[in-house]
Specification:
It contains 19 helices and 12 strands. With 509 residues, it is α+β, with helices and mostly antiparallel strands. The protein has 4 domains: 82 residues, Ribonuclease H-like superfamily/Ribonuclease H (Nucleotidyltransferase, domain 5, 2-Layer Sandwich), CATH 3.30.420; 98 residues, Taq DNA Polymerase, Chain T, domain 4 (Up-down Bundle), CATH 1.20.1060; 103 residues, 2-Layer Sandwich (Alpha-Beta Plaits), CATH 3.30.70; 137 residues, 5' to 3' exonuclease, C-terminal subdomain (DNA polymerase, domain 1). Strands 9-10-6-11-12 form a 5-stranded antiparallel β-sheet. Strand 9 and strand 10 form a beta hairpin. Helix 1 packs parallel to helix 4, helix 8 crosses helix 15 and helix 11 crosses helix 18. The mean pLDDT is 93.
Length: 509
C-alpha cells in the first residue's frame, strides 16, 4: 500500500505472524486477532465493527477517522507485543537464524512480486472460455449417451442414481453425514481405474469446469484497473512445509499436465519489447531424496545428468536403460513421486489405472532396488517419534504427536501423520532452497540495477519479465544464483527458458 503511493520501506525487522508460524508450523491460524486472544486474553476491534458486512458493507474511507485510528493503533500495538513475546522463543528452538536471515528478508521479495503483478492476454482468455464451454457441452452429451438419459451432472443425487442404481457400479465409499454412496473425485477416480468410461468422462468434465471457473472466467475480473495487471497475494504462513502459497488468485495450481491447463499459461504475457523468462529447478525433490538417502544409484544418475525416471524404470522392470519404453518411464515417474509422498498401493493403482496387486508389486520392486530409500524413511520416522518433530536443512520444524508415529508400520500401513512426517524433510528443504534462491536473485538484480522483474514463484519455478535484449545475461544470473544457493551431494540443475508468454518459452543457453 505504501509503495503504491511512492513510499518504499527500508525493510521490516520482525513479524509476529511469521514468528508464531515458525514456532507452530502445523497450526491452522497465525493471525493477529487469534494470537492476541490466545496470548493476552484480549479481543481486538473487528473489521466488521468498522465496515459491516454483506450488502451494507462500507469502505474504510467512509469510517470516521477516530475509529480507524483506534483500530489501526490497536493492531500495531498487538503486533509489537506479540513479536516481543514470541521472538525470544525462536533462539532456543533453533529458529532465530531462519527467521532473521530468510523469512523476514523474504517479505521484501514477496512485496516486490505482488507489486509487479503480471500482464494477461484477455482476448485469449475470452477465446479459451468459449472453447471450454464447447468442450463441456460435448462431454455432457457423451455422458448422457453413456448413461442412457439426460441428467444434471452437478447433482450428486442424480449422479448417484445413474452410477449406482441404474448402472450398478460398485460403491467405493459413503458420505460421512448421510451414508449415501459418495460421488466425490476420489470415488470417481477409483471407478475410472476399474475401467468404467462414464466416471472418466465425469472427471474430465469437472477438470474443464474447474479450469474455466477458477481461471479462464475469473482472472479477467481480477485485473487491477490502474495497472492493467493481476496481482496475486503470496502467503508465507500457510503451508506447514514452508512452501509459499498464493491467493486472489491462486496461481500455484494451474495444471501443466493437461493441454487446456497449459493454454491458460499462454495468457500470462510480457509487454512489447520484453519476454517472460522461467527458471525451474529440475526434479529438485528427487535430488534431495538422493542427497538425504545417499543412494548410489540415484546419485550416479544425477551426477551423470541422466534421466532419473528412466534409471528407476530400468531398475524396476529389470531392463537396460536404452530399452525402457515411454509407458515404463511413466510408471517409474509416478512411483518416484508416489514414494516421496507416501502414496499407498491403492492410490498408485488409481493414478496408473491398474489393479492394486500390480501397483503393490511396483512399490515392492522399487524398495527392493532402492532399499536406502525405505531405510531413510524409517530413520526419519524414528527421529520424529523420539523428538516430536521433523526438521529441514535450514532448521525449519514441524511438530508431530509422537504417539501418532508408530514403532512399527509397513509402507502400506502408514497413516496420515507418518506420511506428512516423511514429506516434511524433503518438501520443507525444497522450500528452504527456493526461498533462499529468490532472496539471492532479488538482491543481485537490485545490486546490479537490472530492469528484469521477478513476477511469480510457483512451486519449484520462478517467473520473470525481462527486456528482450537482456534475456541471455539475466538467464545466466538467475541460473547461477539458483544453483549456488545451497550445496548438496548431487548437482542442482535449473532449466531456464524465455518467450512471449509463460507457455511458449524456449531454452536459454
Amino acid at each position: 500500500m505504501l509503495r503504491a503511493h511512492g513510499v518504499e520501506l527500508a525493510g521490516v525487522v520482525g513479524d509476529s505472524m511469521i514468528a508464531h508460524y515458525l514456532l507452530h508450523a502445523g497450526e491452522r491460524t497465525h493471525n493477529l486477532d487469534d494470537l492476541t486472544q490466545t496470548y493476552f486474553g484480549h479481543a481486538n476491534i473487528s473489521i466488521k465493527e468498522l465496515i459491516g458486512k454483506g450488502k451494507k458493507q462500507i469502505t474504510m474511507a467512509e469510517v470516521p477517522v477516530e475509529k480507524v485510528r483506534d483500530y489501526a493503533a490497536e493492531d500495531a500495538d498487538a503486533a509489537w507485543r506479540l513479536a516481543e513475546k514470541l521472538e525470544p522463543e525462536l533462539e532456543p528452538a533453533g529458529l532465530r537464524t531462519l527467521y532473521d536471515t530468510l523469512e523476514i528478508p523474504l517479505i521484501d521479495v514477496l512485496a516486490e512480486l505482488e507489486f509487479n503483478g503480471v500482464l494477461l492476454d484477455l482476448p485469449l482468455l475470452a477465446k479459451l472460455s468459449v472453447d471450454m464451454q464447447g468442450t463441456l457441452e460435448t462431454i455432457e452429451q457423451e455422458v448422457h449417451s453413456l448413461a442412457g438419459q439426460a441428467f444434471n451432472l452437478a447433482s450428486p443425487k442424480q449422479l448417484r442414481e445413474i452410477l449406482f442404481d441404474r448402472m450398478k457400479l460398485p460403491v467405493q465409499k459413503r458420505t460421512g453425514t448421510t451414508n449415501e454412496p459418495s460421488t466425490d473425485q476420489e470415488s470417481l477416480e477409483r471407478l475410472a481405474a476399474l475401467g468404467h468410461e462414464l466416471p472418466k468422462k465425469l472427471i474430465a468434465h469437472r477438470q474443464v469446469a474447474k479450469l474455466k471457473g477458477t481461471y479462464v472466467d475469473a482472472l479477467p475480473a481480477l485485473v487491477n484497473p490502474k495497472t492493467g495487471r493481476v496481482h496475486t497475494s503470496f502467503n508465507q504462513t500457510v503451508a506447514s512445509t514452508g512452501r509459499l502459497s498464493s491467493s486472489d488468485p491462486n496461481l500455484q495450481n494451474i495444471p501443466a499436465r493437461t493441454e487446456q491447463g497449459r493454454q491458460i499459461r499462454a495468457a500470462f504475457i510480457a509487454p512489447p519489447g520484453w519476454q517472460i523468462l522461467t527458471a525451474d529447478y529440475s526434479q529438485i525433490e528427487l535430488r534431495l531424496l538422493a542427497h538425504f538417502t545417499d543412494d548410489p544409484n540415484l546419485k550416479q544418475a544425477f551426477a551423470e545428468d541422466r534421466d532419473v525416471h528412466t534409471r528407476v524404470a530400468a531398475e524396476i522392470f529389470k531392463v537396460a536403460e536404452a530399452d525402457v519404453t515411454k509407458e515404463q518411464r511413466g510408471v517409474a515417474k509416478t512411483v518416484n513421486f508416489g514414494v516421496l509422498y507416501g502414496m499407498s498401493a491403492a492410490g498408485l493403482a488409481v493414478r496408473l489405472e491398474i489393479d492394486k496387486k500390480t501397483a503393490a508389486k511396483f512399490i515392492d520392486d522399487y524398495f527392493a532396488r532402492f532399499p536406502t530409500v525405505l531405510a531413510y524413511q524409517d530413520r526419519l520416522l524414528a527421529t520424529a517419534r523420539r523428538t516430536g518433530f521433523v526438521g529441514t536443512i535450514l532448521g525449519r520444524r514441524r511438530a508431530f504427536d509422537p504417539s501418532a508415529i508408530r514403532p512399527q508400520s509397513t509402507y502400506e500401513q502408514r497413516n496420515g501423520a507418518e506420511r506428512e512426517a516423511i514429506n516434511m524433510e524433503i518438501q520443507g528443504s525444497a522450500a528452504d532452497l527456493m526461498k533462499l534462491a529468490m532472496l539471492n536473485v532479488y538482491r543481485r538484480l537490485r545490486a546490479e540495477n537490472r530492469r528484469a522483474k521477478m513476477l511469480l514463484s510457483v512451486h519449484d519455478e520462478l517467473v520473470f519479465e525481462v527486456p528482450a535484449d537482456e534475456v541471455p545475461a539475466t538467464g545466466e544470473l538467475v541460473r547461477h544464483e539458483m544453483t549456488a544457493a545451497m550445496t548438496f551431494s548431487v548437482p542442482l540443475k535449473v532449466d531456464v527458458a524465455a518467450g512471449p508468454n509463460w507457455l511458449d518459452v524456449e531454452d536459454v543457453a
